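Example: Homocysteine S-methyltransferase.
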Amino acid sequence: MSTDVLGSSSWVTDGGLETDLIFHRGFDLPEFASFPLVDDEAGRTALLRYFREYDEIAAVAGAGVLLETPTWRANPDWGRVLGYDAAALDRVNQEAVALVRSIDAAAERCLTSGAVGPRGDGYQAEVIDPDEAAEYHAAQVRSFAAAGADLVHAMTMTGPNEAIGVVRAARAAGVPVAVSFTVETDGVLPDGRTLRQAVTDVEAASPADWYGVNCAHPTHLVHALDGGEWQQHLRFLRPNASTQSHEELDASEVLDTGDVELLRSSTATIRDLVPSVAVLGGCCGTDSSHVAALWGVPRRTS
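Written out as structure tokens, the predicted fold is:
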């Protein structure tokens, strides 16, 4: 399988799925998990509507569309809490790929990405051995590969070790893999490493095909950029709408949708500094209106 599925194209990806579902579409998501909606008729309908909005943005923008499965929490630990055993997780991960593929099956340029989240909390650094992480994430990655996902994307990684494990699991399954780290307001990862260090560590141990940043505002990310050649590895950008810290967002009971113009202008700054970014969408607090603004296309009204 070729790993150059991104090529030289630009790709619209989706926004803050879970925050959109909770605050805009009225869903209760125990443990912040969206994957159980794949098993629910109303949930599947909402997911299809959500993904179609981004497919429409891509069509207007003249870009490809890369849609991430709603499986950020669909791993053994979180699955167990929600009543999913190994067989049920395999099924729901594969069905999530099929659901997303049904959205863009007719598009000329479309990719389905199997979303992998951290074993623990996405805002807290976890101490985990890379080989242990590879074994832990292997089942989910195999499910994505079996269902025909175009790539795997590990998001909200708090340090390089777990990211290395996901890469190793993807290599064993024969599927391309992207790794996106999250950073705090000072541009440093939750485990204390710089973004440069994290990318360099993964590159030295088990290189991913692409790297990125998610779940951080562009004004936070800018502190991590030093102009080094390592930045050329960054291809994915999924910023938060809010400038609040992870700790503040975790404690908040209301949605901070941020300042769209600040998000747009600060994202433009990042893209000027990192022209290699090819996949652009959003993360917590963003919806299709934010992503449309990032792509300079008319805001959706329905």
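The beta strands are 11-13, 64-68, 110-116, 151-157, 177-181, 210-214, 234-238, 279-280.
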